[in-house]
Design a protein that fits this description.
It is built from five helices and five strands; from the N terminus they run H-H-E-H-H-E-E-E-E-H. The protein has helices spanning 6-10, 20-38, 52-56, 65-72, 149-154, and strands spanning 41-47, 77-78, 85-96, 102-113, 119-125. Strands 1, 2, 3, 4 and 5 form a five-stranded antiparallel sheet that branches. A hairpin with a 5-residue loop joins strand 4 (102-113) and strand 5.
């Protein structure tokens, strides 16, 4: 075991000195890695993962609900109104760092069935078929008096007191009537 003496300190042989330089390099490396990971790119596929050969094998007049579900699995969504339509939806997006993700590709397979459950039509939609929907910022008018936050908050103070209702405590009817 080596004991330190005053000559060792003068010659720069300080073995007990903390490695501030190594800690700084490590912290700088980790900080840089964190910052660069925020700039990373990512691509994701959301929804149904298409196999074009299987999707193209669905034939109107030949396939039915069961054969479609056996081939493609459960649909992403179905129609609520009108004729029964199953939708298989896939969307590929990319994101750079913390920015909003943008769509790269979108595919929709719509399979319509007749009343007997046989495939009536098969349609393929892509990003080219998409339409931008403009969101309106209009507000629905409310009839009657419009109250501010504080008016709503303090409007009922003292209005209801326990036990003062017409039909007993709380204003409700007594049980059994």
């Amino acid at each position: 075991m080596h004991r330190m003496n005053s000559n060792d300190r003068k010659n720069g042989n300080d073995r007990c000195r903390p490695a501030h330089g190594q800690f700084f390099v490590l912290a700088l490396t980790l900080g840089t890695a964190l910052l660069l990971s925020a700039c990373s790119r990512g691509e994701d596929i959301h929804g149904y993962i298409f196999d074009d050969t299987v999707a193209n094998a669905i034939s109107p007049g030949v396939d039915n609900r069961r054969s479609v579900q056996d081939s493609l699995g459960s649909p992403s969504t179905t129609s609520d109104f009108g004729p029964e339509v199953w939708y298989y939806i896939s969307r590929e997006t990319k994101r750079k760092g913390f920015f909003k993700e943008t769509a790269i590709d979108q595919k929709i397979l719509a399979i319509a069935f007749d009343d007997g459950g046989t495939v009536k039509a098969v349609k393929h939609y892509t990003m080219a078929d998409a339409r931008r929907v403009r969101i309106r910022s209009d507000k629905t008018p409310v009839r009657g008096k419009t109250l501010s936050f504080f008016q709503q908050l303090f409007a009922n103070i003292g209005r209801f007191a326990p036990g003062t209702g017409q039909n007993g405590p709380g204003g409700g009817r007594p049980p059994g009537t």
